[in-house]
Design a protein that fits this description.
The structure is a homodimer.
Chain A lengths: L2 H14 L12 H8 L3 H13 L3 E4 L3 E4 L4 H6 L2 H4 L4 H25 L2 H16 L3 H19 L2 H14 L7 H23 L3 H23 L9
Antiparallel strand pairs in A: 1-2
Helix pairs in contact in A: 1-3, 6-8, 6-9, 6-10, 6-11, 7-8, 7-10, 8-9, 10-11
Chain A binds a DNA duplex (30 and 30 nucleotides) through α3.
DNA sequence: GAAACACAGTTGTCATACGAATTTGTGGCG
DNA sequence: CGCCACAAATTCGTATGACAACTGTGTTTC
């Protein structure tokens, strides 16, 4: 077993066994080196790996701490890497969105309150008025994230966030296509909001499903492997 | 910007910009240190972080390589950490399973062939005959993974695998409860398989949904926050 | 009481050295 | 020529020492 494995599994075991709980501070690097029998370099590599996965957080001059170990945070650690996926991988993720986003919309429809509906509505006003790509992307993201937050499952929200972060990065080069996409997207948003406002999970879910499917259509179209007819 | 950030973002940029593609070997650590202007220690910490996230793979004496960057692999990197989640987090994940597994079952029902149905059936024979916890757990896992593989989306399979790996770890201490769980679980498996064999997505999905819900019932029951009546 | 300071403890970074594994080059042999 | 054995070079793995940067705390000073 390599020194790195020793450090990694040693640290993980400290948490798994309950010796270290969320929020706790780890012993200093020097002490951990002695206890685990590895050099400081190997130990630090192990700490970094767990930090990359969202399990540990290190503060310069203070120490390393066990994170709160929320499912949403661990899932969120993927956001650093999904941006590296090639196009084929993005389609797999879009399929996951097609499952999760309608579900989130249905849950949200059952739980949403009037104030949130109002906030989403004014968000759509802004979106429709915006013609700057960056701003539009930001507002669009806020709209969808608000919905999944209302759904009430943080892990679900985080997962949707990770999945969306990838498709969101694309900018449609053709101006005509971009305008068509925006127009259709605006309609889709209104349809989702109608479902939410009427507390109709089926309608909200169906609208969200159509919305993701439309996104997927454009991803396929620009990734070159599109086969079929244009969506209506 | 810290040296570690420099190394991490430098490496990530090499991949994001296309200078390094899946399968490529990275320049040696010495050369990367010069190019990025950081020490070998800091560089290695960056490499380890990307390795933990499934983006890089290092082979002793040979070099570091860009992974295939499959969505399934990146998602699979979570399996090291989900085992550390406290019980509340597990319930969030079970809710995700309640969304994903029925969907996978529905997809599988539309795509499954006779041979696979036969294989699943004999797998269930083994499961029902088994009374060893470890073996039962392994076979149960094989049954569910086969279904999600048939569904045809590797990212979905990997995600379900990660989510299941957590709930699977629990052993029901009470012998009577364990027997009841197994009996009910066996029935659920047969119901799912019937849906698959009849190529009935709705039936398969409903059976999978009930199966996950039953698991969730036991998780809640043993985590102490169960409120409600027993499932039928 | 509040601000400024000094100090100990901790992580961040670098440089160097050597061990361990792989890859490559080389020479000899059939 | 093809193949094998062996040595050399390359590369990652690990350890050590040193110092900078930062944090938290207690103390001094006004």
């Amino acid at each position: 077993m390599s020194a790195l494995d020793t450090a990694l599994h040693g640290l993980r075991a400290l948490i798994a066994d309950g010796a270290l709980r969320p929020g706790d501070r780890l012993p200093s690097e020097g002490e951990l080196c002695e206890r685990l029998g590895v050099s400081r370099g190997s130990l630090r590599e192990g700490i970094r790996m767990l930090a990359a996965l969202g399990v540990l957080e290190t503060r310069h001059g203070s120490g390393s701490y066990v994170s709160e170990l929320r499912a949403a945070d661990l899932i969120g650690s993927l956001s650093l890497t999904v941006g590296l996926l090639p196009m084929e991988g993005v389609l797999e993720l879009t399929e996951l969105r097609r499952i999760l986003e309608p579900h989130a919309a249905a849950l949200a429809a059952a739980r949403i309150d009037v104030d949130t509906v109002e906030r989403l509505s004014s968000l759509l006003d802004e979106i429709e008025a915006s013609d700057d790509f960056e701003e539009h992307s930001r507002l669009d993201h806020a709209f969808h994230m608000t919905i999944s937050e209302v759904a009430g499952n943080d892990a679900l929200t985080s997962l949707i966030n990770v999945l969306r972060s990838r498709s969101r990065a694309y900018r449609i080069p053709n101006a005509g296509d971009a305008a068509q996409l925006k127009s259709h997207s605006d309609e889709g948003h209104r349809a989702i909001l109608r479902g939410l406002a009427e507390a109709d999970p089926v309608a909200a879910s169906a609208a969200a499903s159509a919305h993701v499917a439309y996104t997927e259509y454009w991803v396929r179209r620009y990734s070159g492997d599109y086969v079929g007819v244009e969506p209506t």
